[in-house]
Structure formats: structure tokens, C-alpha cells
Write a structure and sequence with these properties.
The protein is α+β, with helices and mostly antiparallel strands. It contains 3 helices and 5 strands; from the N terminus they run H-E-E-E-H-E-E-H. 31% of the residues lie in helices and 19% in strands. A hairpin with a 3-residue loop joins strand 1 and strand 2. The structure holds adenosine monophosphate and zinc ion. Adenosine monophosphate is lined by residues 3, 14, 26, 28-30, 38, 84, 90-93.
């Protein structure tokens, strides 16, 4: 059983921020920033590609709720929402989860996506490739 399933089954402890029928949120054991929290469906889905769409809806409702719990509890103004799928993308726990990472001006963290040169021909070809392979 995966580590998050063990938390959900009360086999190992967590610092629970929020829970409802389908979703649990708890503090990440390794706090990237103060208040770093994971929002997790109670049912085990490995990644976004197999996540049930109805569960995804419930999960994102909880993301909004937990974001506001953190905002109020920690007097936040800024927050990154991150989800890693697959090892190349940095996924280390194979139970789908969403990171809520509160941001502070001096936190030293960066999720900056650098802008690249715009090329409309490449964009058109890329879109054709994506849509033709459905
Ligand atoms: P990811 O790398 O996106 O798969 O994120 C997995 C996250 O789970 C990491 O940030 C870990 O610190 C966190 N984590 C692993 N084990 C636990 C645990 N027992 N309780 C809370 N968070 C955990
Ligand atoms: Zn699991």
C-alpha cells in the first residue's frame, strides 16, 4: 500500500488540515515553504492520466477550500499550486496529489517558467500533431 493510502487508512499519522468524504489535505512532511500542504483524493489514482474526472472536480473544490484555510491561517497573499506526474516531472509518491505552496517574498523558491521566442509555424504544427493523434 502506498504511503498516502496508509495515511488515509490511519496506519501512519499526518498533520491533517482538511478532510471530506473524498479528499484529505495534510501538511507536507518536508516543508518547501511555511504551510506547504498536499491535497489528496482518498481513492488511489496514480497520476493525472488515470484520475477520475468527477473526483478531479471534488479535489479542486477542496483545493480552493484549503487554499483559503491556509490564506486565513497564515495570513497569505501568494500561493503556487503544483502537481507532478511521472518521475521526469518529479513525482515521488505514486498517489495523485496537489501541492499548495505558500509563497513569501524571501522564501528563495522559484517555479518561474521562462518565456521563449514565439514561433507561429511551430505552434500550428504542434497543435496539428496534438489534435491529429486523438
Ligand atoms: P511529489 O514529489 O510531487 O510526488 O511529492 C511527494 C511529496 O510527499 C513530497 O513533497 C514529500 O515530502 C511528501 N511526503 C512523503 N511522505 C509523506 C508523509 N508521510 N507525510 C506527508 N508528506 C509526505
Ligand atoms: Zn495510494
Amino acid at each position: 500500500m502506498c504511503v498516502f493510502c496508509k495515511i488515509i487508512n490511519n496506519e501512519i499519522p499526518c498533520y491533517k488540515v482538511y478532510e471530506d468524504d473524498q479528499v484529505i489535505a495534510f501538511l507536507d512532511i518536508s516543508q518547501v515553504t511555511h504551510g506547504h500542504t498536499l491535497v489528496v483524493p482518498k481513492k488511489h489514482y496514480e497520476n493525472i492520466f488515470v484520475l477520475d474526472e468527477a473526483i478531479a472536480g471534488e479535489l479542486y473544490k477542496a483545493v480552493v477550500k484549503v487554499s483559503n484555510i491556509l490564506k486565513k491561517g497564515l495570513n497569505l497573499t501568494d500561493l503556487n499550486i503544483i502537481n507532478n506526474n511521472g518521475p521526469v516531472a518529479g513525482q515521488t509518491v505514486n498517489h495523485y496529489h496537489i501541492h499548495l505552496v505558500p509563497r513569501y517574498s524571501d522564501d528563495g523558491v522559484s517555479f518561474f517558467i521562462p518565456p521563449k521566442e514565439v514561433n507561429h509555424d511551430k505552434l500550428a504544427n504542434l497543435l496539428e500533431q496534438i489534435l491529429n493523434n486523438q
